[in-house]
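From: lab user (bench 3)
To: helpdesk
Subject: output format question, protein + flavin-adenine dinucleotide

Hello, I'm new to running complex predictions and I'm not sure whether the block I got back is the full result or only part of it. Here's what I submitted:
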Amino acid sequence: MTGKYTDTTFDFVIIGSGFGGLCSGFILADEGYSVCIIEKNKQLGGNLQVFSRDKVIFDTGVHYIGSLDEGQLQHQFFKYFQLTDKLKMKRMDADGYDIIRFPDGKEYKYGMGYDNFIKILVTDFPEEKLAIRTFCDKIQEICRLFPLYNLEENISPEYINNTEFREINAEAYIASLTNNVRLQNVLAGSNPLYAGVKNKTPLYVHALILNSYIISSYKLVDGSSQLATLMARNIRQRGGELIKNRKVTGGVFDDEGLLTGVTLADGSMIKGKNFISNMHPAATIDIFGESRFLGAYRKRVKALENTISSFSMYISFKKDSFPYMNHNVYYYMVEDVWSGTHYTTEKWPEGFFICTPASSANESFAEGMSVMTYMRYEETEQWAQTFNTTSEVTSRGSDYEQFKKQKEELILVELEKLYPGIREKIVDVYSSTPLTFRDYIGNYDGSMYGILKDSNEPMRTFINPRTKIPNLYLTGQNLIFHGILGVTIGAFVTCFNFVDSKKIIDKVKNA
Ligand SMILES: Cc1cc2nc3c(=O)[nH]c(=O)nc-3n(C[C@H](O)[C@H](O)[C@H](O)COP(=O)(O)OP(=O)(O)OC[C@H]3O[C@@H](n4cnc5c(N)ncnc54)[C@H](O)[C@@H]3O)c2cc1C
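Helpdesk reply: Thanks, we reran it on our side. This is the complete output you should expect:
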């Protein structure tokens, strides 16, 4: 690569165009800095990437977004990013945006708005009004503790070091509210949103994510990639540059240990004054060189457990054959909603997440269906040496295809029980494994949401945006929390190292 990219020294070079990288790029470009975002894939957006089969658009990593009603947090962020007038969104069913379904066929609906959420669940559990109310109060109380979640700028060291509320375990807290096991499982029923682990997931993770969806839930119509496309357009309008299909392979340093540029796979170099990595911290360490990070930090980051990966199945339907569902289904084949991350291969899957993507072409019938279930990276380890993305197309082999077909069939058998006759409506079935996520996102194990937060050691899983390399910073889902809302907040935390936090928060509030 030559020309304007290689001749310029950018104020900020951002490695990776996941939503966290794009948000950081926007914030800095909007403040007048020159920004260059480098993305290894052909498509921008990381987990916002979509693909199309049989003319159906499938999302790969974002199926619904919370707190998008006028004035709510994500809506206010999207306004600041100048997205709201262009985004195609669909508000989900107010009386059941998520349905939690158990092996006995009983379904429980999550209502939108706390009053509605409580009202619907109290109908199912009339004896448990106090437990349900206490749960909702606690969720909201915890959310109030996070300054940026409430558009407050005061991130004091006391707040960062206050580990007490971070040590509350989600499963244990819910179990302390009621002896009704079914209610416990209902209240934690959407835990695949953060790949919850029974003895580890903190209540604050459950609270921040569940709260954002309870207050309002939306699907993106015609694919989540629109978020990346619109952000890229807005960054370019502010003078920013985005380079696609170029992988960052290393760093160039001066004698003082400052990064002066990143090298790309084609041998060229992009120069910058400051650098932000949207990659997983472990991958960041490897790219810039282990010796440049403190041994203890390196060891800690590399030893941190990641959330489990996913086997995702995508179904295209015959025209007007399967009704569009304006809600998601969390389908459990076991009573315990926490056990799925520790499945045995003999009893796989223990449950899955089901949604039908929203399309502007057909509001009554679904064009397709996405089904996601947990899968450990080790299950695909025998093909670990293969690499396959649209930038570098290779076959992983017929045995891999066979493996996927077997897994698809296990899921289809279950789907038949839930939706009798579904097979006749299907045009084709496609699937992706942990290797797909690994290759497209650039982490090591296809982890869905990055580093697993642990209520037993909350500060150990805390990742600071600053690194030992003075002008290299981190952003993305490993920082504060994952999801579109989590990485948006994370981008602000990263950028507050360079911009006036009060000024930016005021800009968001007044957007
Ligand atoms: C199956 C699944 C379902 C999900 N569902 C939802 C949902 O419904 N709602 C929601 O809010 N969130 C959801 N999430 C979570 C959400 O998608 C992520 O938390 C978020 O998108 C991560 O953003 P990020 O900024 O960390 O970047 P990522 O999306 O992790 O992207 C990182 C980017 O860096 C690039 N990169 C890596 N290495 C290099 C390199 N060497 N050179 C150049 N570029 C590089 C990658 O190609 C990628 O584009 C889901 C995630 C998964 C996996």
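A quick orientation on your result: The two ends are 38 Å apart (CA to CA). Let us know if anything else is unclear.
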